[in-house]
Amino acid sequence: MKKNKKSALEEKEGIHLNAISNEASIARIKNFRKKQPSVASLIQDINSGDKIALSRAITLVESKNRTHLAQANQIIEACISNKKNTLRVGITGVPGVGKSTFIEALGKYLTGIGKKVAVLAVDPTSSLSSGSILGDKTRMEALVKDENAFIRPSPSGDSLGGVARKTRESIILCEAANFDVILIETVGVGQSETAVHGMVDFFLLLKLAGAGDELQGIKRGIMEMTDTIVINKADGKNKQATKLASIEFTRALHFYPPKENGWIPMVLQCSALENEGISEVWQTIINFKKATLNSMYEKRKYQNKFWLLQTIEDNLKIRFYEDDAIQEQLKQLTVQVMNAKVSPFVAAEQLLAIHQKELK
Amino acid sequence: MKKNKKSALEEKEGIHLNAISNEASIARIKNFRKKQPSVASLIQDINSGDKIALSRAITLVESKNRTHLAQANQIIEACISNKKNTLRVGITGVPGVGKSTFIEALGKYLTGIGKKVAVLAVDPTSSLSSGSILGDKTRMEALVKDENAFIRPSPSGDSLGGVARKTRESIILCEAANFDVILIETVGVGQSETAVHGMVDFFLLLKLAGAGDELQGIKRGIMEMTDTIVINKADGKNKQATKLASIEFTRALHFYPPKENGWIPMVLQCSALENEGISEVWQTIINFKKATLNSMYEKRKYQNKFWLLQTIEDNLKIRFYEDDAIQEQLKQLTVQVMNAKVSPFVAAEQLLAIHQKELK
Q1: Which terminal Cβ of chain B has fewer Cβ within 10 Å, N or C?
Q2: Could you give the angle at the alpha carbon of A264 between the alpha carbons of A260 and A265, nearest 5°?
Q3: Which domain does B56 fall in, by range?
Q4: Cα separation of B259 and B203, whole Å?
Q5: Beta-bridge mates of residue A271
Q6: C-alpha closest to that of A278 among A83, A112, A51
Q7: Interchain pair B304, A224: CB under 8 A
Q8: Residue A189 counted as domain residue
Q9: Residues of B in contact with A346 (CB under 8 A)
Q10: Residue B304 placed within a domain
Q11: What's the angle, vertex CA A138, arms to CA A134 and CA A144, rounded to 5?
Q12: Min Cα separation B30/chain A (Å)
């Protein structure tokens, strides 16, 4: 129980009645405090690939404490870079599709060919479901133990915006710690897929072959974001169904407008459980990178810009909707607007005037 | 040189030495001013279906003059209602697809069965292209002369938000003036289709049968918004191509997720020029209304709410981006963020702090 050694309880236990005069204890505590790494040493350790320093920095990023956040910002500013030898891969799929098994298989394959792999997650519901996603690390037992892998569950947070921001900053830290491949998992609740799509180079949709209409369960907009569909569990008696699903998805993809970067999304099959088809998935991602290299780097630039403007606009909205002077008025006017008693534009003007006054 | 007559120079020319003593002129001007209708009389006339009053009110809505806008708001507030016997139909299609001919054919069909039809447009580029859309009213010659039709070109305005707002207020005014069917045309520049989709009950995509891949020219997201695809110019030697295109579009529609209201989009054929298939288009819209009545009224409520929040959020952004203290900083920081010199989140914080200070 490594964790207990660092807990507050452990420290208290060490302080006996005669603690104050216990020079040895005081020295030990002082020494422990000194060991809390400085921002500078965290940065240095991250750059040398130290996973503990990386973890600590991500904890600062995820903290709600202002001091921690200021430290986090310093670290981010020092770690941000323009590294081009990294790949950010988004992976989505409904629960039950085998995301954990797939990520473990892909992760192990990658460390096997000499890559360093970080696994992050965007799951805005994780605080409620107490970390269903990646929380149960036993599901990735082999990858967790792999020294070239780093696994971090989804940050908790009430808003998707917050979770997305933290994950995006974690990508910066992971890349600074020399991880080459960043896998970002999402369960696709609400807009989380769009958020993940906005921070990755390659977006992968994991599917299962079922009995009925394969397209039924696909959320609006996902197909247009998808760079490749991977049908998982293509094993045993599923093989025939997988083949049929593959044909249907391929046809479906044809009916979407072509991508700007010229990439034609495809449908692959794999069995994460039996470790089949994993190298083909990676080869496809590599082919994608080769085929779209320039537009990939351009995309990263525009993703950076997108997050700048998105953060600004999110904050402007938060400041408005959290304005005490607005809340009651907004509630009442919304009902009136919905029932066509007041025009939306007139109501908006009234509310903006109240907010403007409040800020002044 | 019509324009010159209205210029400031021309006016000066008209003021002769004895102008001030010209009692007849003064009386005429005073009389003209008196004739400018009051807000109260405009409201009354709109409600009695007077097209001139309707036109004048829309001109107030489109004005940039503060007094006019205050009057416009008063009129809107008086005209807003919960009428359920109206239908708002959005029509999109690329230039050349025959939108004007189609709208004229549909409009004439509707006035023929006793409906009052208003035709509006959302074309954010119209100020640049000097009203390409609906501007050339000769293209709808028969409809323009129809006393049960009202045609208004797209408001000019630099932003889609502004154009959309004005069109949405015009819908309120047209419905107050007892128009039952509001046709809203868009050329689909940028996000204008999404804006139109957000203000109509039914969204119609007009297409042409061509030689190649019919889906090639379809913009992302349009198919998911479409309630019905109408293939126009299904006449003469186009008939065979139309049939093939119809099959392809029907198949393509199947590959999109089902709509929440249960409506299954379909593909129709028509020849607006030969007046064929127009009644079938209308019958489909009527079927849609019958099949989705409750969700249609619910949708209107949420469209109202959407426009309230959208207007608020647009204005918060405009206030930020037009803040003089922000502009130079934003430009510099955007470049740094794009090139991964500064984190988007840190840059956003800096800019928000500057803006906050400015407002105080």
Answers
A1: N
A2: 110
A3: 21-79
A4: 13
A5: A276
A6: A112
A7: no
A8: yes
A9: 73, 76-77
A10: no
A11: 75
A12: 33
Other beta carbons within 10 angstroms of residue B180's beta carbon come to 17
Other beta carbons within 10 angstroms of residue B266's beta carbon come to 17
DSSP annotation string for B57-87: HHHHHH---HHHHHHHHHHHHHH-----S-E
Q: Please report how the helices B293-321 and B278-291 are oriented relative to each other, as an axis angle in degrees rounded to 10.
A: 90
Chain A residues within 8 A of B194 when measuring between CB atoms: none
Q: Note whether A224 and A86 are same-domain residues.
A: yes
> Which DSSP helix (H) or strand (E) runs through A357?
helix A344-359
Which tokens is A72 given? 């986090």
Helices (H), chain B: 2-5, 8-14, 23-35, 39-47, 51-62, 66-79, 99-112, 141-145, 160-176, 192-197, 222-225, 239-254, 278-291, 293-321, 324-338, 344-359
ipTM reported for the complex, 2 dp: 0.78
Does the beta-carbon distance from A312 to B81 stay under 8 Å? no
Distance CA A293, CA B331 (A): 26
d(CA B29, CA B24): 9
In tens digits, chain B (360 residues) has pLDDT values of 344 444 333 444 444 445 555 677 777 766 666 567 899 999 999 999 999 999 999 999 999 888 998 999 999 999 998 888 999 999 998 888 889 999 999 999 999 999 999 999 888 765 444 444 444 545 688 898 999 999 998 887 767 888 888 999 999 999 999 999 999 999 877 788 889 999 999 999 999 876 455 566 677 778 889 999 999 988 888 888 888 889 888 988 888 878 889 999 999 999 998 999 999 999 999 999 999 999 999 999 999 999 999 999 988 998 999 899 899 999 999 999 999 999 998 899 999 999 988 666
Coil, strand or helix at B91:
strand
Residues A326-349, buried b or exposed e (16+ Cβ, 10 A)? beeebeebbebbbebebbbbbbbb
CB atoms near residue B311 (< 10 Å): 23
Position A149 in a domain: yes
Domain annotation covers residue A31 = yes
CB contact under 8 A, B82 and A339: yes
Same domain, B56 and B105: no
Cα–Cα distance, B355 to B319 (Å, whole number): 9
Chain A nearest C-alpha distance from B70 (Å): 10
The CA-based dihedral angle spanning residues B184, B185, B191, B196, taken in that order and rounded to the nearest 10 degrees: 10
